[in-house]
Design goal:
four-stranded antiparallel β-sheet, 2 domains, NADH Oxidase, 9 strands, 17% strand, alpha+beta, globular, 323 residues
């Protein structure tokens, strides 16, 4: 493939720009970056944590973990090898990772992964009725290189039904909490550079996926949150701390890029994890009590290409770079 690249300032800025395309809860983009010669440091932007929905900072850290994996993929796609040190300092500093970059040779796989990163998006439109096979779900579950992370396909009918009940229960509880709903709606059309544009939520008939956190549909839609053809994956970890959350985000990114390359769409169902009651039920009733669920996603096929979707905005690069 192409020749080796040096980790110069322009290349490092391009890597950060690509990393910032990572998914985040409500498109809060809760990350900050410091760029030095041959090195990028990732920090949590605690000012963007959702204090009601994400009191512990779990979702914030998972989002940053996805951005960390995007960093590694972007670097490889630009001809640089990344060596990651996670949580290099005290957690109180918000310093989540250091990425040392050295020249390498870009492989065909690295180029393909970069293309998937550039195409990846959250597509909230209803999936087609074409089922996602167990073989495809298993391949997605194997996509992550993250240590101490397990991605579990949910294919058993009773287990799928139980997850649908848990998702409906979580949504009902959140809708009944005015603090949660106010926090969620603050991030709809939050600004021109972050949050969820209402146009991204509008699908056919100006609706969104029924049961979605931003839906304005009625409560009857809760019965139809998951379709029988949807694939369901649970990302869990052996531990439940900052490093585990960071690695869960890396796994989410790796799985998502694999799904994108395969032509599949991914939509997180984070409400089940955000509500402690339903998260505990998911852990003990479906995961045997040993694995800590960190995020839940549904997988499916879309009739229309994702290239036609409007992209959610991103903060200017200078806003996320610190000295």
């Amino acid at each position: 493939m192409s020749a080796r690249h040096d980790a110069g300032p322009a290349t490092l800025r391009r890597i950060v720009e690509l990393a910032c395309r990572a998914p985040s809860l409500h498109n809060t983009q809760p990350w900050l970056w410091r760029v030095e010669e041959g090195r990028i440091d990732l920090f949590a932007d605690q000012s963007r944590r959702l204090p009601v929905t994400d009191g512990q900072g779990r979702s914030l850290t998972i989002s940053c973990g996805a951005a960390l994996h995007h960093t590694v993929v972007a670097a490889a796609g630009l001809g640089l090898k990344a060596r990651v040190t996670r949580l290099p300092e005290s957690r109180a500093t918000g310093h989540l990772a250091s990425i040392e970059l050295t020249p390498s040779r870009r492989t065909a796989q690295a180029a393909a992964d970069l293309r998937a990163l550039e195409q990846r998006c959250t597509d909230r439109r209803r999936f087609t009725a074409w089922p996602v096979s167990y073989e495809r779900l298993s391949a997605l579950a194997r996509a992550t290189p993250a240590r101490d992370v397990q991605i579990t396909p949910i294919v058993d009918v009773p287990a799928r039904f139980r997850i649908e009940l848990l998702a409906s229960r979580a949504i009902e509880l959140q809708r009944a909490d005015t603090r949660v709903t106010a926090e969620q709606h603050r991030w709809v059309d939050h600004s021109s550079v972050d949050g969820i544009p209402v146009t991204s939520l509008d699908g056919s008939a100006r609706g969104v996926v029924r049961g979605d956190r931003f839906s304005h549909s009625n409560d009857d839609d809760l019965d139809d949150l998951l379709q029988g053809s949807d694939g369901i994956l649970v990302i869990g970890t052996n531990h439940d701390d900052s490093e585990a959350w960071l690695r869960a985000g890396e796994a989410l990114s790796a799985m998502w890029l694999k799904a994108t390359a395969d032509g599949l769409s991914v939509v997180p169902i984070s409400q089940v994890i955000e509500v402690e009651e339903t998260r505990s039920s998911l852990q003990h009733q479906l995961l045997g009590g040993l694995v800590h669920p960190q995020t839940l996603v549904r997988i499916g096929w879309q009739q229309i290409g994702r290239s036609e979707l409007p992209r959610t905005p991103r903060r200017p690069l200078d806003d996320v770079l610190v000295t």
